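BUG-192 | component: ligand-complex export | severity: low

The export step for BIS(adenosine)-5'-pentaphosphate jobs runs without errors, but we want the raw record kept on the ticket for reference. Input record follows.
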Amino acid sequence: MRLVLLGAPGSGKGTQAARLKEYLQVPHISTGDLLRAEVAAGSALGLQAKEVMARGDLVSDEILLGMLRDRFSREDTKAGFILDGYPRNLAQAAALDELLRSLGQKFDAAVQLAVDNEQIVERLAGRAQAEGRADDAPEAVRKRLQVYDQQTAPVIEFYRQHGQLTVVEGVGTLDEVFTRIVEAIAPEKAVG
Ligand code: AP5
């Protein structure tokens, strides 16, 4: 199964991708996690990305595509993947299309987790207190939501127009949201 998970910051992409990874037995590729690993390692790329991420902006398309190409060159992605955090603008959507085409692959579904902004702000404020992620500070959250509306919302529309979009209600318990996703993408595998 090849899945693209879409949704605003804090909509639960990472949380659900971790569960889907076990369930579908395919790797979870989070561009946010890949970038945070570079920042933690203090690499040249990480140094470039650190401030951009902390203020809630998007890291350059070029860097992201390079990272993604590297990750997709690994053997484990042949069986499928859950892509979380990419694409985030229309140029990235086109680049993903091109990359998958060059690999002779195509994804099965783009799943959008729908969560309203009020709930998002509440979730990220909770995580800011619990984990202290730099971009969960209120100013950065505002910026991330703005970037999402301006740059990522058109990606959702793009997949909708191409008949590839599945929208899943992202509010509820983790189990409820997970069950909705599974029912939407692989009803034959859903339990209960
Ligand atoms: P990234 O790491 O992708 O962050 P994000 O999209 O802002 O997503 P989050 O990780 O905040 O949220 P999520 O949807 O994964 O939700 P989560 O499961 O964590 O990107 C970070 C930055 O990296 C970007 O801003 C950008 O700078 C850069 N970047 C990454 N990809 C890029 C790209 N393609 N191009 C350019 N730049 C890029 O959950 C959030 C919280 O809610 C958690 O505390 C969780 O416990 C809680 N929660 C989850 N589900 C529920 C639920 N059902 N009910 C209640 N709480 C819940």
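Assignee comment: Attached the raw record above. The first strand starts at residue 2 and ends at 6.
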